[in-house]
Amino acid sequence: MNVTHASFSGLDLLASAVLLIDQDQAVRYINAAGENLLAASSRMLIGKTLGSVCTCSATLQSAIDNGLLNNWGYTGQNIELKRADGEVLRLNCTVTPLRPDVALGMRLLLELQPIDHHLAATREERLIEQQQANRELIRNLAHEIKNPLGGLRGAAQLLEHELANPSLKEYTQVIIKEADRLQDLMQRLLTPHRAMLPATVNIHEILERVRSLLTAEFPGSLQMRRDYDTSLPELVGDREQLIQAVLNIARNAAQAMQGEGEIVLRTRSLRQVTLAKKRYRLAMEIKVIDNGPGIPDEIRERMFYPLVSGREGGSGLGLTIAQNFIQHHHGTIDCHSRPGRTIFVLRLPIEQA
Fold first, then answer.
1. Residue 217: how many CB atoms within 10 A of its CB?
2. Which of 18, 134, 288, 300 gets the most CB atoms within 10 Å of its CB?
């Protein structure tokens, strides 16, 4: 007899992943946090053995075996678990034997909690506060710089008309062009503060738009692969802001790989997640994965700050703007990077349109 999801609906409210397994180590129940942790739905996991959906460390596997054979409980910290997609997680783990139940057949309760969960929440809160202060500072500076730039450009134009020697106009053109470049930079710093234009949007239409833009920009050499969960519902958001956010991230990846490599656009659903201190029943996760050189260590902690760039000639605004737009949608953005694999994770709440 399979356990119905409704039988343990209260466990869906827990932030920790909870799995119930039987004597054969088959998964009989998994809560929403567990689905998020293992990046798979309960429909895909129920009935499968634990070893087929993830790879437990020797320590955890021994604890499970002892729980089944001897009814021993176990609590461990910093335990390694490898997901089916290859991502390695480090967890705090509790194994609790259950009383034999002939009807339900469940033998063990596994509670798994990523050790970086609380650290990540604290870091996210600190970064949001710091970035808000940085954005306000940059915005004020941009306003202060725009007016002198206009005067500088105007003076260069007047001087150009007064010059008798045409060869000297080369220098005034340098002043005018650099003033225009700085004006454009200031405008881009201020652009994220425009009001949103919310509407019902399909995230896969947005990702397809990004894919077509990058395919046209890097014809032939860049591989763009889709991995979509087509069951995702629509969400309410600003279409142009979402396109720009994902495009900035994916374009950074393409440029880091010099247009040669692979970018994967992946979508999944999440249930019962906390985003920016608010709990949501349903959310979506968008991953932009590339096999490029990775983000340099010296800028990894500062990459979302304005004017920080790891590429020569980069403005350092792409990720700042992306983060602003995702935060406008009450979502979060995070990054994990090593040479050969960089993953940007965007999480957005899904609200009824």
1. 13
2. 288
Q: Indicate the residue type of 137.
A: L
- Three-state secondary structure of 280-301: EEEEEEEEEEECCCCCCHHHHC
Distances (CA, A) of 297 to 129, 168, 340: 22, 45, 14
Nearest partner of 347 among 288, 263, 262, judged by Cα: 288
The secondary structure of residue 320, as a DSSP letter, is H
Instruction: Read off the pTM.
Output: 0.60
Contact present, 3 and 104 (Cβ < 8 Å): yes
User: Does one domain contain both 170 and 255?
Assistant: no
Residues 32 and 49 in one domain: yes
CB atoms within 10 A of CB 102: 6
CA distance 55 to 87: 10
Q: Convert 189-198 to b/e letters by CB count within 10 Å (16 or more is b).
A: beebeeeeee
Clarify whether residues 203 and 274 are in a common domain: yes
Q: Does one domain contain both 305 and 209?
A: yes
Q: How many CA atoms lie within 13 A of 46 on its CB side?
A: 14
| Contact (CB, 8 A) for 29 and 50 | no
pLDDT in tens, 213-229: 898 888 878 899 999 99
Return the CATH number at 111.
3.30.450.20
Burial per residue of 162-171, b for 16 or more beta-carbon CB atoms within 10 angstroms, e otherwise: eeeeeeeeee
- Amino acid, res. 187: Q
User: What are 11-23's pLDDT values in tens digits?
Assistant: 766 778 888 998 8
Query: Could you tell me if 33 and 272 are in contact, meaning their C-beta atoms sit under 8 angstroms apart?
Result: yes
Domain extent, residue 36, equals 5-115
pLDDT for the residue 301: 67
Helix (H) or strand (E) holding 261: strand 261-275
Helix (H) or strand (E) holding 35: helix 32-38
Residue 267 region, left (φ>0) first, then alpha (ψ -120 to 50), else beta?
Answer: beta
